[in-house]
Structures are given as C-alpha cells and as structure tokens.
Amino acid sequence: MIYIKKPAKPTAPGEPFLHQDHARPVTRREMLGAGLISAPAVVMAPAWLGALLRSGNARADGLMLDQQALEAACGISGGGASNPKAIPFICFDLAGGANLVGSEVLVGVKGGQSNFLSTAGYGKLGLPGSMVPSSTANISSALGLLWHADGAILRGIMSKATTPATAANTNGAVICAMSQNDTGNNPHNPMYGIAKAAIAKSQLVPLIGTNSTVSGGNSQAPMMLIDPTLQPTKIATPADSKGLVGGASSTSDPVQVAVLESQSRITLGTSNSTGVLSNSSMTVFPADATADAAAKVQARCAFVKTAYSSSAFTATALDPTQDINIVGGATPIFTATDFKDGDVAKTASVMKLVLQGFATAGTISMGGYDYHDSTRASGETKNFKAGQMIGAVLEYAQRMNTPVMIYVFSDGSLSATSSPDNSAASATSQGGRGKLGWQGDNQSTASTFFLVYNPKGRATTIGDPTTQQIGYFSADGSVVTTSSPAANSVNNLVYTVLLNYMGLMGNQGSFGTLFPTNGLGTAAAGMNVFNPIV
Question: What pTM, to 2 d.p., does this model score?
Fold first, then answer.
C-alpha cells in the first residue's frame, strides 16, 4: 500500500501557530509569538498619578514655571525634531523566531554578503537551488544592502516606499548573530541605550513601545542598560498618542493646564526655582536625604511635564490619522480603513511620535512569527506584512525629510524542509512562491539587520562595502559564533547596534565612555558601518 503525505496547509492570516513540538503557550510572550494575542491598547501610568489627575479640588491660580526653569529642573527641551543630531530610531520586534536572512537579507561566508554560501547552506535558509543568489537575477540592491530579489520583507517594503527617493536614500547592514528560539528572555531591545546615546531630548516622552513591558516590546532590554526613569510609554493606537496630552481636543485646554500646575504646587511645594524644586513637607526616604530630594523632583516633574505637554501640544498634532503625510495625497501610506488593522495602527502611531521628535525611540512588536508549519506561504505572508510596516516608516521619513534608523530582530530563527511550496497567492496569502517550507526552530540561522534612511543621500560605508555584513556564516548555513563579538552574545549584539547608532551621529568616539561595560573590545573599530549622516 502506498501512503501519500497530505500537503501542509498554510496558516491563515490572524490564525495562531500551534506546533506539536511546542508546549501550550502560557506566558504573554509565548502567546504573542504564536500570534494568539496582539499588543493591547492601554497606556499605563502610576496609580497615584492617575488619582491626583482626577482630583477636582485643586485651585488653578499658581505655579507658572518659566521655560528655562522647566528645562533645567525637569529636562524639558525642544525635542529631537529641532536638533539634527537626534536621529529617530525605531525597532521592529518580530515575536516567534522569524527568517530574516538568506531568503531575505543576503548573508555570506567571511568576506561579505557576496561571498556566497553553498547551495545546501541556502537550502537551510529556505531557498531551492534555482533561487540561490549566485545568480545575479536573484539579487537586489534597491535598498543598498543586498537582498534576495524575491524576499518577502523587501517586497513589502517596496509596496509602501513608493517615492523613488525613499529606496535610493536607504542603506543598511546585517549582523550575523544567534539568539534563543521562542523566548522573550533574549536581551535584544536597545531602547534604553538609544535614549542614553541620543544627543537631543524628545519633546514629550523619551521612549515608547507597543507592549506594556519594561522594554516596550516582546524581547527584554539588557539589564545593565535599564533606567527606570526612561521606561517606555505604552503606545499602540492613535488614541494612545492623543492621550499623551490628555485627550481628543484639537487645542490645548488652559483649564486642564492650570489644574495640573496647581496639583503640582499643592502636592510638592510652591517654589518655581530650580534650586528648591524638591521643597516639600513630605518625606519619602527618611534615612537618605539625596534619594529623598531626587524622589520629590521626579514626582513633581511628572506634574510639570504633563502640564507643559498639555499647554505646548495638541492631541490633533499627535494623531497619525490626521497627518496628511500619512493619510493624505494621491498615494497615502495608510488609508482610514487600514487603521482597523492593529499592526497599522501601532506602526503609524509610533512612527508619527518618533519621526516628529515627540519620542526619541520606539519599539513596534508584531506577533505570530513562529510560522514553521511546514509551508512557506505562512512565513511569506507574515514577512511581507512586516516589510510593509518597515516600508511605511521609511516612506514617512522621506516625506518628513528626516533621517531614521530602523532595527529589525526576532527571538531565534528557523530552518527549512527540502520540499518547495508552490501554493498560489491570494487576497490573504502571498503563496509559497516555490520556496522551501519552514519546518522547525533553529537558533544557528538567526541574524538581525538595520536600515538607515538619510534625506541627504544614501549613507556611505566607512570602508569596503563588505563591512555591511558584521560577522559571517559557514558555507552550510550557520552563524560562525567566533566571527564577531556579537555572533554568540545578544548583549554584544545590542552594543553593536548602539555603536552604529552613535556612528551615524559622528560621536562613536564616546561609545566606550558611555557604555563602559560593552564587550566589543578592540573589535569595535571594525564594527561601525557608516560614515556620519548628520
């Protein structure tokens, strides 16, 4: 008797990935990776702050801090948009273990992207022999960084980056680096380091993220970089963005501002001088005068910053659905209907705040990237969607005439079957496109990449273009763990990203001083890819 194996069926968009070799998802991170949940639309704030903001008994006749006092005492400034050296930064956290290289960004052996792997090596990364990049027809340099010409992320990017100058002024680099599969324990997220490295302060909040986690995303932030005063504000919808200044009003509310100012005055003293900003009869740390003063400053500044934000900004100014560079013109990046999609809502909200300088950096988490269901169509569809969101950020940067650095990572990766998926594309699926199906997790094939958009022209490499690949693969398709300090250390992977962010601003010389615990050592000199763009 002959048994015929039933072909695997692609997972429909929005349908979770539940694998027999995986335990039932229990934690929030596991459910995000499987696509069972998305980022909820809740802005988190301390309960005590919310209680005070609801107070209706405060008098609104005092505490009018002048601009200089605000800047000196509470760190309020004109924001990143007014300082060309504050390069906006957005990272995409693809939860579940996505394929990012080989079938997407090209990787090679020692010597760079064009020093190709073996046919078997690319097969491990999802490409049949007819699609390996040794054929120039399978290579695209549209974004500067070499890509497989049929990469789903590339196709998604180009579907949104419709202005020719967007792709023409984009470049990037790939970092060959392993990370654990299907876990949020990888300290992938560089947000805190970015906030520390950014030269200019943002106008409203330092960091934002689509998840209510310490990092703002699915993966963790390196412990040594976490600063509780910079914890990301949760932004996942346009309503969250508008909530930063108190609601849906298109004009600032003088009553609201006065109430907030009065709450600050009656709660923590009346002086508006920077020297006595912490004056208060309340004692927080009885045994530690320095900590007590710092706590009072932080508490009072929470009110002062909120009052300043309500006065200086309007909800409409933060609303991506009202931005003509996003929803207007002959080729809108997103339409009103698109905003019904949670990934669109969160991407538009984050890119609006970051690229306009309201936040220094933002994390966008996208779930469901644990797509090894033995098909290729599921992975192609998910990667294309990620590409669309990345392309939207690049296109918006072009329309806003601002630079941006985009970093893309995932928790682990996967390897392919030997069977091609020839399923057809449809309205909801990209189809298999003749590529090999994804069959299981494989952290040895993991890597990350970053893209840089520069309105002044495509960023140039410091040395030979081979520097656009940091580290390298073996010919059989695995990361060589000794190829760079980042290859087998996620902490060093984050430091590599921070080094390159600082390099774009021309202050990489301060990297060792700013991050003394980094593990890059003398290798750091060869891991900075691009010349400054500002």
Answer: 0.80
